[in-house]
Design a protein that fits this description.
98 residues; 5 strands; Dna Ligase, domain 1; 39% helix; alpha+beta; two-stranded antiparallel ribbon
Length: 98
């Protein structure tokens, strides 16, 4: 399949809400299935050095606290939130050991 067709299809999948782009620490785009399709809410650890991305799930109590804080912030700003995604950027263990 031509590379242009792959990019065009990924763009269509993103527009349809089937996949979403993960912005990493490098020039390469990464995509994953939308949470609506997987029923797996998670966040990401993203290495700014090598671009590695690791899925992480927060403990339920912390997730509730984050959700409540985001709802309060949205309400104060006249915003109605629908969902959240948190990415933590830093340097992975492999890159730190080099």
């Amino acid at each position: 399949m031509p590379q242009s067709s792959v990019y065009r299809n990924i763009a269509l999948l993103e527009e349809a809400g089937i996949v979403h782009r993960i912005v990493g620490g490098d020039e390469y785009a990464r995509y994953e299935l939308a949470e609506d399709l997987t029923d797996h809410h998670h966040h990401h650890l993203i290495c700014s050095s090598c671009g590695a991305i690791e899925d992480v799930t927060l403990p339920a109590e912390l997730e509730k606290s984050v959700e409540a804080a985001l709802r309060r912030t949205a309400r104060r700003n006249g915003f109605e939130g629908t969902h959240h995604r948190l990415d933590l950027f830093g340097v992975c263990a492999r890159c730190r050991s080099v």
